Amino acid sequence: MSQLELRTLRKEFTGGGEDIVAVDDVDLTLNDGEFLVLVGPSGCGKSTTLRMIAGLEPVTAGDVVIDGESVTDLEPRERDIAMVFQNYALYPHMTTRENIGFGLKMTTDLGTEERNRRVKEVAESLGIGELLDDYPKELSGGQQQRVALGRAIIRDPEVFLMDEPLSNLDAKLRTQMRTELKALQDDLGVTTVYVTHDQTEAMTMGDRIAILNHGELQQVGTPLECYHRPANRFVAGFIGAPSMNFLDVTSDGDRLTHRLFDYEVSADTARNIDEYDRVTMGIRPEDIRVVDGPDVQNPIEADVHLVEPLGDVSHVTLNVGEQRLTAAVPGGQTFERGEEVTLQFPEEHLHLFDASSGQALKNSSQSADEELAIHA
Ligand code: ATP
Q1: What is the rounded CA–CA span in Å between residue 199 and residue 297?
Q2: Lowest-confidence range among 113-117, 201-205, 282-286?
Q3: Which pairing describes strands 278-283 and 245-252: parallel, antiparallel, or unpaired?
Q4: Does the pTM exceed 0.70?
Q5: Rounded to the nearest whole angstrom, what is the distance from the C-alpha of residue 57 to the centroid of ligand 1?
Q6: Which of 39, 69, 121, 246 is the most exposed place for a label (fewest CB within 10 A)?
Q7: What's residue 373's pLDDT?
Q8: pLDDT tens across 113-136, in order?
Q9: With contact defined as beta carbons under 8 Å apart, do 360 and 232 qualify?
């Protein structure tokens, strides 16, 4: 049971005479037993952050602190941390029993019998109790992943670090393992940092998520906070699938002007944007209304480019002038390609960002009472 703190953690690499700031002064505190997902696009510094926590990569500056004690200068094996890798890193010449028990053998003086008893217990809890005598090459991807997890769990560490542990599994198994892994972590209560580039994994697994871009922490919050109240345009576009739609407009007090439409905003919204001439409108696909009739507030004319029926919902790609938007509409609603439609962006669901900095100026009023933890 442990609290993990990253204090102004920084990593610079020098490559080809150029300095790369891979991790840019990240401050982050994980509560005891928390499952925190570190998410962001490829190259944003997720793995480097994890490797610094594990001690596999020296820090350029800053501190890794577990329960108030700095571990920054400790060797990896001296930190009470277990890591699960994307490629499982199992020993091919060892059976499941030996792979899971290997760490215990190296770090404790437990006898063979006690070691085997614990291995069996962990293997059974992971549903691989029948596979103790099998070698990795005889196991499926999902089974190998469970062995890798078993090897981490059996050490009963203060902190788990997981680097894209599900990415080698097929889509169905990944969804299943996602649920299992989250339940397992809940049961064990071990503080966990989980790295992924997959926003669905982040949303479904994290107690909180921390979003990185170019080595900088963009926002830390619960999945729903980050979804409804993104701190900036980057987070708004990264979290949610299909992605939020963006339209650049100019602002003139209570009116937003696009080449093809005007949008009048309420006095409340106008107050949020009164210092900004250029703003970006953001609207999530599920918040776009495709409406009939002339009496629509702030109508936006569009034509249907493509319809992707998914059953309960359809994703409709729309042209607003040159720009493509995506709307998610109830599966029963049908559209023809090329059909002219009228869209409405309900103001309560509208997001507005400063067009130059990307900073959020107004978010969806849904969950407006939720506490925000914005690190921008
Ligand atoms: P991915 O999801 O693709 O693994 P990531 O978010 O984990 O990406 P990192 O692997 O942490 O990103 O890399 C962050 C940045 O640091 C990238 O620009 C990468 O090219 C750079 N980098 C990582 N390791 C090194 C290294 N050993 N030498 C030089 N640059 C490095």
Answers
A1: 33
A2: 113-117
A3: antiparallel
A4: yes
A5: 12
A6: 69
A7: 41
A8: 888 999 999 898 888 999 999 999
A9: yes
pLDDT value for 213 = 97
CATH superfamily of 4-233: P-loop containing nucleotide triphosphate hydrolases (3.40.50.300)
- Å from CA of 23 to ligand 1 middle: 9
Angular region, 127: left φ>0, alpha ψ -120 to 50, beta rest:
left
Residue 149 identity: L
> What HEC string does 43-80 produce?
CCCHHHHHHHHHCCCCCCEEEEEECCEECCCCCHHHCC
Beta pairing partners, 65: 5, 70
CATH architecture of the domain formed by 243-375: Beta Barrel (2.40)
Structure token digits, residue 107: 């770090």
User: How confident is the model over 318-371, as pLDDT tens digits?
Assistant: 999 999 999 999 998 889 999 999 999 999 999 999 999 999 999 987 544 444
For helices 112-125 and 96-107, what crossing angle results, to 10°? 130
Indicate whether residue 48 lines ligand 1 (CB < 6 A).
Answer: yes
Distance between CA atoms of residues 203 and 196, nearest Å: 11
42 C-alpha to ligand 1 centroid (Å): 8
The type of residue at 369 is: D
What tokens does 21 get?
Answer: 């700031």
Q: Where are the domains of the chain?
A: 4-233, 243-375
What is the best residue among 21, 23, 47, 217 to mutate for testing ligand 1's pocket, by most ligand atoms within 8 Å of CB? 47
The span from the CA of 339 to the CA of 342, in Å, is 10
Tokens representing 124? 């059974």
Residue with CA at minimum distance from ligand 1 atom 28: 13
Q: Write out pLDDT tens, residues 129-182.
A: 999 999 999 998 888 988 998 998 898 889 999 999 888 778 888 888 888 889
| Nearest one of 62, 72, 60 to 20, comparing CA atoms | 60
Pocket probe for ligand 1: among 12, 20, 37, 38, the residue whose CB has the most ligand atoms within 8 Å is: 20
CA distances from 73 to 54, 78, 161, 209, 272 (A): 11, 10, 18, 27, 46
Calculate the CA 132 to chain-centre distance: 34
